[in-house]
Amino acid sequence: MPRRPSRVIVLGALVLGLLALATRAAPSPVDGEVTALADHELDGLVGYYKALHATPELSRQEEHTAADLARELRAAGFEVTEHVGRYTLPGYKGTGVVAVLRNGAGPTLLIRADMDALPIEEQTGLPYASHRRMKNEAGVEMPVMHACGHDVHVTSLVGTARVLSKLRSRWHGTLILLGQPAEETIDGALAVVRDGLYERFPRPDLVLALHDSPFLPAGAVGVTPGYAMATSTQMDVVVRGVGGHGSRPEDVKDPIVLAANIVMQLQTIVSREISPFDQAVVTVGTIHGGTRRNIIPNDVKLELNIRAYKPEVREHIIQAVARISRAAALGAGMPEDRLPLVSVLEGEFAPALYNEPATVARVRGAFERVLGAENVHSVDPVMASEDFGYLGVDGKIPVMMFALGANSQELIDEAQRTGVPVHGLHTSRFEPIPAPTLRTGVVAMSTAILEILGN
Ligand SMILES: [Zn+2]
Ligand SMILES: [Zn+2]
Q1: Chain centroid to CA 45: how far?
Q2: Among 304, 324, 348, where does a domain finish?
Q3: Which of 5, 28, 31, 351 is spaced 20 to 30 A from 94 at the CA atom?
Q4: What is the pLDDT of residues 115-125, one digit of tens each?
Q5: CA 264, CA 447: separation in Å to the nearest integer?
Q6: What is the band of 3 on the pLDDT scale with cuts at 50, 70, 90?
Q7: Residue that is last in its domain, among 299, 329, 348
């Protein structure tokens, strides 16, 4: 028979319950002002979003998107500079937009929204779907779609600008809004940093961004403290041999057998050299060699993609790929002048995203207060990559990115029931639900800003 709880235990539970109630912050008056302003702006923002969705632009060519954004931010009272990032990389036209609102002494905060779309043919069937085609940098005509939801990011930035401009009496400091080009080619953040983002404009104490997510319902946000996205590094290994006739192995050094050996040995880097407490991926994405079945070729090319969180783990993998390739070639009797050529493609590197834990904890509290704790999810880290990490300039400036729910709860539930995944980012059927997604984007970002800069 269960014992009746003692009076002391009952009293203790009562006190704890009252304490919990007292410490759970209720929405403040300014929270109410943020949601009221977001609601007031919502119709206009949905219109802005639909127009932008229908007119996407490829990476490095976001000229109209940038000009429209610049106009909106100017109208909201910001001091706007266009064409940031110009000529910092070969062929770069410079479509970055930097908007500054100085509002007295206080911290400086930078909010980033990426602006580019993808070469994907939209198949959502929406009335505001994109039918646009444009030439990529190689001059080839491509369909274009906002399949990563950067139109959600740009529109949320416009809404946030309006809210923060109207609530100027509620905060102090400097707010910088960045329309960033070329996230999908992972060089736009680098381009604007190289063009003096932190010298020509006030240097931020913190950088924030949001990214929409098809895995969370519209109305919700998700946070990940610490490492959230991986570094992405591209490597080439050209496995050289000494070719010859397929019938005369005694005359040749076969690079195909050697490449096969190297591919298998590369699988031991993560399993046998990296701590199980560190995350890493080594993928050999392509292998090309040979022209005919009876010819042993002179070389085979491997294209690798490396993912990791910590810089030292990335460095270890790069060294291990070089060491394993060289040792395997020496083991196959390859002469010194035919050892593999191993290279890192420096231009195609994305840094890891490390969400500063103290900021995440603070902003999470504000999100829970305004959106309700049930709408603030903990999101697991992923090995995907982003160029947002560049804005932290090697950890010198803390950064935080949070996820913005964009899907319908029914579709998420259905995916869970059937095991068929939702239409994800970078697919032709990715379809954020405009109104609740944008409302939450504006409310969440404005709340995060006021949490840092608020009076
Ligand atoms: Zn993307
Ligand atoms: Zn994206």
Answers
A1: 23
A2: 348
A3: 351
A4: 999 999 999 99
A5: 50
A6: very low
A7: 348
Average pLDDT over residues 252-261: 97
Enter the pTM of the model: 0.88
**CA 352 to ligand 2 centroid distance, Å:** 15
pLDDT tens readout for residues 211-243: 999 999 999 999 999 999 999 999 999 999 999
SS (H, E, C) 407-443: ECHHHHHHHHHHCCCCCCCCCCCCCCCHHHHHHHHHH
How many Å lie between the centroid of ligand 1 and the Cα of residue 185?
A: 9
Find the 150 Cα to ligand 1 centroid distance in Å: 8
Please tell me the distance between residue 150's alpha carbon and the centre of ligand 2 in angstroms: 6
Tell me the pairing of strands 244-245 and 226-229.
Answer: unpaired
- Closest ligand relative to 401 C-alpha: 2
Kindly state whether residue 21 falls inside one of the protein's structural domains. Answer: no
Q: For the chain, how many structural domains are there in total? A: 2
Q: How far is the centre of ligand 1, averaged over its atoms, from the C-alpha of 152 (Å)?
A: 12
CA 430 to ligand 1 centroid distance, Å: 11
Q: What is the SS3 assignment for 389?
A: helix
CA separation (Å) from 423 to 130, 253, 407, 437?
17, 47, 9, 16
Phi then psi for residue 284, to 5 deg, are -90, 105
